[in-house]
TrEMBL record, chains A, B:
This is Glycoside hydrolase family 13 N-terminal domain-containing protein. Gene3D superfamilies: alpha/beta hydrolase, Immunoglobulins. Residues 65-124 form the Glycoside hydrolase family 13 N-terminal domain. One of its GO terms (molecular function) is acyltransferase activity, transferring groups other than amino-acyl groups. InterPro entries: AB_hydrolase_fold, Esterase-like, Glyco_hydro_13_N, Ig-like_fold, Ig_E-set, Mycobacterial_A85_antigen. It comes from the Bacteria. GO terms for biological process: carbohydrate metabolic process. Pfam families: CBM_48, Esterase.
Amino acid sequence: MINPLEPALRKQARFNLPNRFLALQKLITKKVLTIILTAIVSFGVRAQQNTGFRQGSLVSPQISEGNSVTFRLKAPLAQSVSIKGDWEADGGKGTMTKDASGVWSFTVASLPSDMYLYTFTVDSVQLLDPVNPFVCRDVGNLFSVLITNNGKGDYYSVKEVPHGSVARTWYPSTAFKTSRRMTVYTPPGYEESKTRYPVLYLLHGSGGDEEAWVTLGAVPRILDNLIAERKVEPMIVVMPNGNPSKQAAPGETKENLAYRPVMSNTLPGYKEGSYELSFKEIVDFVDTHYRTQAMKSKRAVAGLSMGGFHSLFVSANHPDLFDYVGLFSPGINFKTVNMNLPAYNDLENKLAAQMKKGIKLYWMGIGKTDMLYEPLQEYKKILDKIHFPYKYVESSRGHIWSNWRSYLLEFTPLLFKK
Amino acid sequence: MINPLEPALRKQARFNLPNRFLALQKLITKKVLTIILTAIVSFGVRAQQNTGFRQGSLVSPQISEGNSVTFRLKAPLAQSVSIKGDWEADGGKGTMTKDASGVWSFTVASLPSDMYLYTFTVDSVQLLDPVNPFVCRDVGNLFSVLITNNGKGDYYSVKEVPHGSVARTWYPSTAFKTSRRMTVYTPPGYEESKTRYPVLYLLHGSGGDEEAWVTLGAVPRILDNLIAERKVEPMIVVMPNGNPSKQAAPGETKENLAYRPVMSNTLPGYKEGSYELSFKEIVDFVDTHYRTQAMKSKRAVAGLSMGGFHSLFVSANHPDLFDYVGLFSPGINFKTVNMNLPAYNDLENKLAAQMKKGIKLYWMGIGKTDMLYEPLQEYKKILDKIHFPYKYVESSRGHIWSNWRSYLLEFTPLLFKK
């Protein structure tokens, strides 16, 4: 994929009005200015506050044949520039080199099709790629984003298929005595039909929030594309905020911009179980406000890391609610939990009861180098001991979004089959 | 407002696991590693892919008494660091100074209550504030964001009031033979009630898209807060994409990340009138899919810059649709338009017909230093000539979001009154 935008960017650079405007203003009278501005405006410009790319015609990242990717940064005065990304080759690290015009560049030979995050470091200052307007926030950090195609990345991309809707809405929580925010994906055709849909409850990890799965997790694209290919049943995906001490994502709470995202485990209320025990209030809200198939066989709960921990205990404490459970790199080191709390105690009996009520799929996936690999092996022993049936998948790499998007691609086609 | 997060950030810095993990991995066997990791995990950490603030315990921006704001950047190797923001004092420019620890800082004495955008420039490279996770995209550029309170900024902030929902959805466009994306705000209580609501159609400027008003324009906060104060009628706000050659915002189209946002006027289809002439398909979609009061007296259309141009011609070409029209810094230099096109021709007669059908409010606002000030004065003469009644407001400053948010605060309380 050659980036076709260079001419457009060059054209764009001509319209960087505000600076020129300020410089002119000092030199000429208002009347002359009016004539000049009229002439400029007659080029058809309706300049807004902040326009024009910061780095002229520079293209970065440039994705070429075979998913080779070139990154560029103009920094003529810099002493050293490096790049750090979440790809596997060379640990995602690269040293950039400078050309005569002060542009630093670095090329990665071939990136397997996926979504990637990266930043530059210029003389010890970490920054986003200034010419790439696409970013994702992960916990408290922003990253520049790119997608390589011809593989999994195609599912993370917008294609010419019908698109679902994505809503941010608030539900009243009796358990937390406040309203809380959730993100809800409804499948293409939801608004036009009278159909009732199954529901996947999809939970984020520690430090995440109700924005994580829609941005880093590419949920709207994955669902749109898999539904278009008829690989998954059209479904509603509910992504609630799973951070007991916060109502909503950073910037969406009454603390506004004063709350800087931190890992959930540094916040009060972490792992005391009230979120897991009260989860039915979320299900009830969704069943009341959306056209759902409000039954166990049409409900799934899945989550990554802390969300896997939540999914385990939400489903174990509500054996009548979910026929499908997904634990993605689950954070289930029980040594870190007070297992005497009502949400967590008596686990073997709860699992036995859940098994007895019937469960259609209990799916677990983890990367071979995940730091949470061993705790999941311990958990498998508990399941084996009581003959609890499950599906277990091992992938390469570790505790990363690349795996979680991939698990979603694997998990969702298994849901809600007759 | 003193930022209370410094201790939390310091705590956070300890949990920057992945790097330590990699370093350790080379030194120790897997068994030892497992023991160490178990110990680390037992601190309650469920580290995700990219965690920890990049600049340790640094706080930036720090908003103090009287809305004095201090910006900080750690860049020990930099030769010069400056800041550029969209506040008025000193043209939003500042030179930062370095302390012994390599932290550059700059303090603005007092920023009037508002939302502000800013960037740093380090040795000629422009970058976002690395410790501020809050950003807005304006056309193709990202900016760090801050809000100062005790004034208009309070309306741009999340408060403890009921919150509306915000949905991104797609409508089928017959005119453009494709589906197109829109953002829809529904007021608090919409989901619970059977009430029908009035609708404000709110249009973005050149280079903007269906995300502009919700992010830069703070629409959800402004509406939530004004509705809570009973200053505006609960209403639906529809923010369609007004870029004839694009289906959706950058990153939401089939071009994916290859489409870098540019000004609309560099794209095909700009100002040929099909968007304005076909606007009723948007109104019909909204009236079909939302509980609207589907009548002229309960509909408004308003927009900024190019969206003001659109609002003028959308309403003039549909005299039966809107009782309320708002032109915010409208881009109406008719010398730049082919006024023979069906959407734009015969304007005086169209306005006369619109007046005859009755209009409750025709509101126009512009900044005294706006480059589009003169064309609006010309347009007022056209309206005066045919005795078209309007309300005209002049503000300070120019073609900036500060004004457009402010106009929205002024305009919405005037809508849908009996």
